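User: Show me sequence and structure for the first protein, then do the same for the second.

Assistant: Starting with the first protein.
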Amino acid sequence: MVSHIMGWDKSFTKTLIQIIDKGQVTLKEHPDVQAFNDSSVAFGRNMKPHDAK
């Protein structure tokens, strides 16, 4: 669950930086939510507790 939240937080932060830096305010739907979630879960299965930053 932590890795899932970490993945979306990282994605949102990247988008937020683009908005701040470039004045870009267009938010788009993620192209493949399920694949993104699956990737986050796979990452979480291999991460150590100290990796949860």
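Switching to the second protein now.
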Amino acid sequence: MITSIWLFVIVFMFHDFEEILTVEKWADSKKHLIDHPLKRIIWRFWNIDSHSFAKRDVWILFITSTVTLLKVIGFGNAWVDGLYFCFLLVVMIHNVVHILQSIVLKTYSPGLYTAVFLLLPYTSYLLISLSEV
């Protein structure tokens, strides 16, 4: 189980890499879709250059790694288990947001593929596995 928990950091980074690699081109090609206040909110989040997005993702990697390290060190501690469980729930919400953004915009949004095909299943696996321990 410890290996699966550590592997989550790598899986999450694949998701971040998809976002970093696609965000600039996506923003340039989807400007014409922004015709509604809700779409403008989504647009403000994604209308960023890859370098700035990557700087933000360094902090996400730091937080993900720190929470994961706490989980591995404190495995079985109720407080740490609760923190990690809440962290995984936030990641699940993050995945759902990717899906909702794509539905609202009626197009791909950066990070959608890894959110749906990699991060969502892996996060679900961890949540189920950890709830059984």
